[in-house]
Task: structure prediction
Amino acid sequence: MCFFGVKHPYMPPPSMPTTLFSEAPLVVEVDTVLKCIKSFPKGTSCGRDGLRAQLLLDALCGEGSAVARDLLCVITLVVNLWLGGRCPLSLAEFVASAPLTPLLKSDGGIRPIAVGTIWRRLVSKVVMKGVGKDVAKYLNDFQFGVGVSGGAEVILHSLNRLLNLRHEDGSLTMLTIDFFECFQLGRQVDTAT
Result:
C-alpha cells in the first residue's frame, strides 16, 4: 500500500469556470475595505507611488473625515474593479509590481526587499478576508506555507525527528532550500538584465 496515498488522498485541482461572470466573483462592501485599511500596521512603508496606509487612515478618520464616507465608497469601487480583473493595463504594471531595494545583511550579503503599493496590498488583504478560509479549507493538509503559522518549521522539525529516529548512524541527510529567497534573487537578476 502506498503511504502517500493513505495520508494524502488525491484531490483534483480547481478548474476555471467556462462561463463569463457579469459581476466580479468577489465583491466587497465598504466596511470590509475600511477594516482592511485599519489592519495595516503603524509605520507601514509605501510603494513607488509614495502613498502610505497612514495617509488613507488620516483621510478617513482624521480632520478630513467630513468626506470620509464618499472617499471610502470610491476606494471600494476601485478595489471591486480590480477584484473583477478590470484594472486598466496602463496601471497594471505599477499596481502589481514592486521595486527591489537592496538591504545589507549582518553577514555582508544583500537581501532584496520588495515593497508593493498600498493599493495592491489592500486588494490582497481584501481577497484574503473574502476567500482565505475557503482556500485554507480546500488546501487542507496539502500545504504548510500560506496562512499556517510556523508551518515550514513543523515540516523541518518533523523530518529531523524522523531522521534521528531511523538513521542514527548518519547514513541519511537532508537538504533544505529556501525557495522564497531563490524567487527573490531570480527577480533581482531579471530586473538587473
